[in-house]
Specification:
Structural class: alpha+beta
Distance between the termini: 30 Å
CATH architecture of the largest domain: Sandwich
Shape: elongated
CATH superfamily of the largest domain: Jelly Rolls
Number of helices: 7
Number of strands: 10
Radius of gyration: 18 Å
Helix content: 25-40%
CATH topology of the largest domain: Jelly Rolls
Number of domains: 2
Largest sheet: 4 strands, antiparallel
CATH class of the largest domain: Mainly Beta
Strand content: 15-25%
Strand order of the largest sheet: 1-8-3-6
Length: 202
């Protein structure tokens, strides 16, 4: 998103994270811009019963938790390290200065936020359908078309069944059944428990 060198020149610092470590919590005040350098972060809401509503899985070079940097409100979700990870963060004032001095970055940042909003519209429309197989297949198709969460070389789906379930509000058993049905229909392959998506889509 923002070049690492530019962030460091403005005073950014690195932070290493262990799996399960929280970067920020829903409802807290935002004072930093965060960008993932390595590893994976999940951005989610944790419900009272411990279940998670997964909004996105953050990959290297992506920003996360951006909304309150613009509207001054609290974080809308919690960010948790999925794997050992490194993030780079910079104070809000310096972050805004970078955008003011670099209109092209400001535009790219706005485009990124819009893309995430479009995904939310996509999910809302998708979940109006009652067929789990259709919902799961369309979600995987979306990721395939947008080159997200599917290995370009081996075609393995890089999200777990639990993560898919948390993303669409299903029980994991429902997602497992849907994926098995897609395998029976020869739409994807399951090899040693891993899901592989054809290069030409489902």
């Amino acid at each position: 998103m923002i070049p690492i060198k530019m962030l460091l020149e403005k005073g950014a610092v690195y932070k290493k994270l262990s799996p399960g470590e929280t970067i920020f919590q829903c409802g807290t005040r935002a004072v930093f811009y965060h960008q993932l350098v390595s590893g994976r972060i999940r951005w989610c809401n944790v419900l009272d019963d411990g279940k998670e509503v997964l909004h996105s899985v953050v990959e290297p070079n992506e920003a996360f938790g951006e909304l309150p940097l613009f509207d001054g409100d609290a974080y809308a979700a919690t960010a948790i390290a999925d794997t050992p990870a490194t993030v780079i963060k910079i104070g809000l004032t310096n972050f805004r200065q970078i955008l003011e001095e670099n209109p092209d970055l400001h535009f790219a940042f706005t485009k990124s936020v819009v893309q995430k909003l479009r995904f939310k519209f996509f999910l809302t429309e998708l979940l109006a359908n009652n067929d789990p197989v259709y919902i799961v297949s369309q979600l995987i198709t979306y990721f395939n078309l947008h080159h997200q969460f599917i290995c370009e070389e081996c075609r393995r789906l890089m999200l777990t069944r639990q993560q898919l379930a948390n993303m669409i509000g299903f029980r994991v058993e429902t997602v497992i059944r849907a994926i098995r049905q897609m395998e029976k229909d020869d739409r994807l392959d399951i090899i040693k428990g891993k899901v592989f998506v054809p290069a030409d889509g489902l």
